[in-house]
Amino acid sequence: MYAVIRTGGKQYLVSPGEQLKIETTAHQDGAVEFSDVLAVSSEEGKFESDLTGAKVTGSVVGEGRGDKILVFKLKRKKQYKKMQGHRQNFVEIKINEIVVNGKSFKA
């Protein structure tokens, strides 16, 4: 059982019991709900045709910041150099349940 969800401008393939790191999103009391479900499959190669009311719920495991990415800009022969670092915030979540068409799939 797996689903494809969209959050933070990216798409993720998730299944119940799986942990993943996503961009920081709003969550209440450690619970996260994704209603932007693109596809759901209960068995290999077969997809649900009707996705009305489909949602994926999860719980927040932790928050943090990713590895540092260095951004270096250089204009040769002009004595211009600029170094900048960036660390992206993330939320680590555990997928608890996938609900579609009244059927619930849990970890």
Automatic annotation (TrEMBL):
List the GO cellular component terms. cytoplasm; ribonucleoprotein complex; ribosome
Q: Does the keyword RNA-binding apply?
A: yes
**A GO biological process held by the record:** translation
What this protein is called in its record is Large ribosomal subunit protein bL21
Naturally occurring in which organism (per UniProt): Edaphobacter aggregans
* One function term, GO molecular function aspect: structural constituent of ribosome
Q: What is the lineage of its organism?
A: Bacteria, Pseudomonadati, Acidobacteriota, Terriglobia, Terriglobales
The entry assigns this protein to a family as follows: Belongs to the bacterial ribosomal protein bL21 family.
Q: Which gene encodes it?
A: rplU
What is the stated purpose of this protein?
Answer: This protein binds to 23S rRNA in the presence of protein L20.
Query: What UniProt keywords apply to this chain's record, in alphabetical order?
Result: Ribonucleoprotein, Ribosomal protein, RNA-binding, rRNA-binding
A Pfam family found in this protein is Ribosomal_L21p
Q: Is Ribonucleoprotein included in the keywords of this UniProt record?
A: yes
What does the subunit comment say?
A: Part of the 50S ribosomal subunit. Contacts protein L20.
